[in-house]
Design brief:
Elements (H helix, E strand, L loop, with lengths): L9 E4 L3 H10 L5 E5 L2 H5 L2 H11 L5 E3 L7 H13 L4 E6 L1 H15 L5 H5 L13 E5 L12 E4 L5 E4 L6 E4 L1 H4 L4 H20 L5 H24 L4 H15 L12 H13 L3 H15 L7 H8 L6 H11 L17 H9 L9 H9 L3
Parallel strand pairs: 1-8, 2-3, 2-4, 4-5, 5-8
Antiparallel strand pairs: 6-7
Helix pairs in contact: 4-5, 8-9, 8-10, 8-12, 9-10, 11-12, 12-14, 12-16, 15-16
């Protein structure tokens, strides 16, 4: 297996805030822009504590929290504020949206004449470009954006795009911050980790070391989430485990050498828009069907089923049972939705547009049929 190891941020786990501050000062940070995507963090008093700690060390932060999504217009507004305030670093607090936005703003602030849409559309490369230091503080589990070099945001045309090569300098993993989330949000956010671990496990090249790590990550995540559901609250250690899995599993070493099949994620976005369901709901609805339709053809399928403790001859029921135990929907009726048009027509439409060359109409229809 051939792979290239990319830069990874320093991960600081469960350390005192003063230790995190010391790491910031090592970068010479004096005027950071804080991109805040989690209002629970603010209402719990953590933002005041953080800004007070910064100000006590003559570090003057500016807070940007007027956004709901990561898109081009929001990135431009945040960049303008960063330039106006003389920002020399970006601190992101929240989930993937805040981290994706912050990494984009770090690039745009260091390159104020850059045009974002041509970059997103692949007309201009950012390889070798400088960007402000990015310090990420995850307050919810998710896609690992707090620890990897990618950023996802919507363009002016409404389509999703991605940036690569903007790596955080430091990721501060503090379980106490994750504890601001309601249990249901904690579970739902963690489904992103579960789905991406599934994709990596099924589409991975053969490597005993990495596959063993993947197996451990998958079983640890499912066991941890089940414990949270059973006890109706997450312990400090369980919060820490989820945080570490998000940053280590999705943003780190086990992706190396893997060619992931992103078709399920593209289908997920279509389902979210058409049936007005959340990302986590769409994943729990679609992933069992994707594994049954697409995953069964992968060499790692039987091994994945063994790791998950499910019958390979009845993988849909097995995975749906996993999601049901986590209190997640597996049928459209459970989220109050029914298809607005025949699934055959919609599948054919997607196969010739958003999922062209990624999934066939037959595959799409089979997956959708399993949600009814």
């Amino acid at each position: 297996m051939k792979f290239t190891i990319q830069p990874a941020p320093q991960l600081m786990y469960d350390a005192p805030l003063d230790q995190w501050l010391g790491a910031l000062t090592n970068f010479g940070t004096k005027r950071p822009l804080i991109i805040l995507g989690n209002q629970f963090f603010k209402s719990a008093g953590f933002l005041d504590k953080l800004t007070t700690t910064l100000q006590a060390s003559q570090i003057i932060p500016t807070v940007f929290d007027d956004f709901r999504r990561a898109d081009v217009e929001t990135a431009k507004r945040a960049r303008d504020l960063a330039i106006d305030q003389g920002a020399d670093a970006i601190i992101t607090i929240g989930g993937g949206t805040a981290h994706d936005l912050g990494k984009t703003v770090a690039l745009l602030t260091a390159n104020p004449n850059a045009k974002l849409m041509p970059i997103l559309q692949g007309q201009q490369s950012v390889a070798g470009w400088s960007y402000l230091p990015v310090f990420t503080i995850p307050t919810m589990p998710g896609s690992g954006s707090e620890a990897n070099g990618s950023a996802q945001l919507n363009g002016t045309d409404g389509l999703p795009y991605g940036l690569e090569g903007i790596y955080p300098a430091l990721t501060y993993l503090q379980p106490e911050y994750l504890g601001t989330l309601p249990n249901v949000s904690l579970i739902q956010g963690s489904l992103t980790i579960l789905s991406q671990l599934t994709l990596m496990d099924l589409t991975a090249d053969s490597n005993r070391l990495i596959e063993g790590t993947l197996d451990q990550y998958l079983t640890t995540l499912v066991e941890t989430l089940q414990s949270v559901v059973d006890h109706q609250r997450a312990s400090h250690d369980e919060l820490g485990t989820i945080l570490q899995l998000s940053s280590l599993a999705i943003g780190s070493h086990i992706q190396y050498g893997k060619t992931m099949d992103w078709g399920i994620l593209l289908l997920t976005m279509q389902v979210m828009n058409r049936w007005q369901v959340s990302y986590s709901q769409a994943i729990s609805l679609l992933l069992p069907g994707w594994v049954a339709v697409v995953g069964t053809a992968t060499p790692a399928f039987d091994h994945y089923c063994q790791t998950m403790g499910i019958d390979p001859t009845n993988v849909v029921t097995g995975l749906q049972d996993v999601y049901r135990r986590l209190k997640m929907p597996t049928r459209l009726s459970e989220v109050g939705q029914t298809p607005a048009q025949p699934l055959t027509a919609w599948a054919e439409e997607m196969a010739t547009s958003a999922l062209q060359g990624v999934m066939s109409a037959e595959q799409i229809q089979k997956i959708l049929n399993l949600t009814e």
